[in-house]
Write a structure and sequence with these properties.
The structure holds two protein chains of two kinds. Chain A is α/β, with parallel strands linked by helices. Chain A has nine helices and eleven strands. Chain A has two domains: about 160 residues, 3-Layer(aba) Sandwich (Rossmann fold), CATH 3.40.50.300; about 70 residues, no CATH class. In chain A, helix 5 runs parallel beside helix 6. The longest helix of chain A is centred in the last third of the chain and has 16 residues. By secondary structure, chain B is an all-alpha fold. Chain B contains 14 helices and no strands.
């Protein structure tokens, strides 16, 4: 579905991503892990085709992208905002009965139905993040790129939002998400890519990557990995 | 939840408002004209007015009212577009310094003289000079204010500084060329007084181009309210679309300034009013905003003509009376419509 081969990105003359290769098939979920500034966002933007890069990326046209901090347009209602996701399929400013019904369903599933008429500027950070994911879902993409989609969410909404993404994955969408929460990464993602200073530090099955001693080292230590109910959690050492 | 995003009926409603403004605008004045006669003459082609009344209507009032409508439509539309492309609810051709830049360009055209004003083809070139001045102003404002993510107030402060500089340069220019002083002053105060059919013709020509482009790309402009990456994921080329939108909005502003002088706040008040009224941010409302802006300026011009009759107030005074308090109100609400 989406494949990258030796992708490198230079920003302002500095090499920020170096020789990254990955492949995510239909119905698969890849978690991109790594310390702050390791190149996760840059990788997603390169996969989107937005950043100039060397190497090759093979991807379908309909890729949805949810940034870590979505733009919050003044004066736009939640339903208008989510409707923008239909533009690629239906044309800008056009609506179909099917599109309206999908938007309504997705808003309800993400607990935004009651806020459909509210301005997005009045939403909390977590509600806005859910609205951005709703916009990406109604785009009916073949590939979904999420940049730390749960950073502003409470624990309950983190899980419900990722379950919604998982539902898309089950329908055959390839999902790539930059994440910090290793427990949720292990629960939802089939595989993981650990970035360190723009290079691939580890790649493989998610739990294996997280349990590798190099994982903690990449983050500079200070925590250890333990398991609760079969899922990894990070525990501070001090 | 089955709310429609937009309905054509809204645009049609504002079309009716514009037509009403047009008829009221041409009927009221020092010589009152009967509504029925005006409507019949304008839309029915009959001869319901006396020959004097008909001359007042067709040679004096109608070009002025149509020009006011065109200028209002241009300012309101370009304001709405600036607000979208800069993702800044406080953006306005006047506040961004664009109008002052256009004013400087137009003054330069006056300084260079008559041959420039009426070009080889007979098309007035004042709007072209105004356009270059306006583009320079918007470029400087944007570059000084930095990234589009910057605080809305930074863009406005940069606009105020650029506007002050352009106004100072304009003042220097016309004070050092006293022969154009009268022309420039009457133009600064608003040219609608001297409106004739040739002014209407070239204004309409430039605006058909500028507003035509903006109406064609209007729906896609909604994508510029998102981040560039998100817009890209929806199939847009955001940088190119933004450049086209800014160029067309600036041409509309420059034409409005060249035709009507410096008229503030229309580009701020009308888009906010319409979007707030409809509870919609979508740029499908651009034609409705254009019609409402046209109607607003026709009524403002009516106020300018009649409040101190027989003396005339500059139209910018009326728009500022309405617009400045409105701007302060929006500022207090943090930019929400």
């Amino acid at each position: 579905m989406i494949r990258a081969s030796e992708v490198s990105v230079r920003l302002g003359g500095r090499l920020v991503l170096s020789d990254i290769s990955l492949s995510v098939g239909a119905g698969e979920w890849l978690a991109v892990l790594g310390p702050n500034g390791s190149g996760k966002t840059t990788l997603l933007r390169a996969l989107l085709g937005y950043l100039r890069h060397s190497g090759s990326v093979g991807a379908p046209a309909n890729i949805a992208y949810v940034p870590q901090r979505p733009e919050i347009p003044a004066g736009m209602t939640v339903v208008e905002y989510v409707s923008l996701g239909r533009a690629r399929l239906e044309g800008w400013g056009r609506e179909s009965e099917r599109g309206r019904s999908l938007i309504s369903q997705v808003l309800d599933r993400l607990e935004l139905g009651a806020m459909a008429g509210r301005f997005v500027t009045d939403l909390s950070g977590g509600e806005m993040q859910r609205a951005a994911v709703a916009r990406a879902i109604v785009q009916e993409p073949q590939v979904l790129l999420l940049d730390e989609p749960t950073s502003a969410l409470d624990p309950q909404h983190r899980v419900s939002l990722l379950q919604e993404v998982d539902r898309l994955r089950a329908q055959g969408v390839a999902v790539i998400s930059a994440m910090h929460d290793i427990t949720l990464a292990a629960k939802f993602a089939d595989s993981a890519l650990l970035l360190n200073a723009g290079t691939t530090a580890l790649a493989g099955e998610t739990t294996q990557v997280i349990c590798d001693p190099a994982f903690v080292e990449t983050f500079g230590g200070g925590f250890k990995i333990a398991f609760v109910d079969g899922l990894p959690v990070s525990l501070p050492l001090k | 939840m089955k709310k429609r995003i937009w309905s054509w009926r809204v645009t049609a409603g504002f079309g009716v408002l514009f037509a009403v403004a047009l008829v009221v605008g041409v009927s009221v004045g020092p010589i009152p004209l009967p509504f029925a006669g005006v409507v019949q003459t304008l839309f029915g082609g009959g001869h319901a007015l006396s020959s004097v009344d008909q001359a007042v209507l067709l040679q004096i009032r109608l070009p002025r009212v149509i020009l006011a409508g065109l200028v209002g439509a241009a300012l309101a539309t370009s304001g709405a577009v600036y607000q979208t492309v800069f993702r800044n609810p406080l953006a306005d051709p006047y506040l961004l310094g664009v109008a002052a830049g256009a004013g400087l360009g137009a003054t330069l055209a006056f300084v260079l003289g008559g041959s420039v004003l009426l070009g080889a083809t007979g098309v007035a070139l004042v709007p072209v000079f105004a356009f270059v001045g306006a583009l320079a102003a918007v470029a400087v404002t944007f570059l000084v204010a930095g990234a589009r993510r910057s605080d809305p107030r930074t863009l406005l402060l940069a606009g105020v500084a650029v506007g002050s500089f352009a106004t100072a340069a304009q003042t220097y220019l016309f004070q050092s060329h006293t022969q154009i002083l009268r022309t420039v002053y009457s133009w600064i105060l608003g040219q609608l007084v001297a409106a004739d059919w040739s002014t209407v013709a070239w204004t309409a020509g430039y605006l058909v181009l500028a507003l035509g482009v903006l109406f064609v790309i209007a729906r896609r402009l909604d994508g510029l309210l998102l981040s560039d990456e998100e817009a890209h994921s929806l199939g847009l080329k955001p940088a190119r679309l933004r450049a086209v939108a800014i160029a067309a909005a600036t041409l509309a502003t420059a034409t409005a300034v060249a035709a009507g002088g410096l008229i503030g706040f229309v580009g701020l008040v009308i888009p906010h009013l319409i979007r707030g009224l409809l509870h919609r941010a979508t740029n499908r409302s651009l034609p409705a905003i254009a019609l409402a802006g046209g109607a607003f300026l026709i009524f403002a011009d009516l106020g300018a003509r009649t409040l101190l009759s027989p003396a005339e107030l500059p139209i910018g005074v009326i728009t500022a009376f309405v617009g400045a308090p409105f701007f302060l109100w929006i500022l207090r609400r943090g930019g929400r419509p």
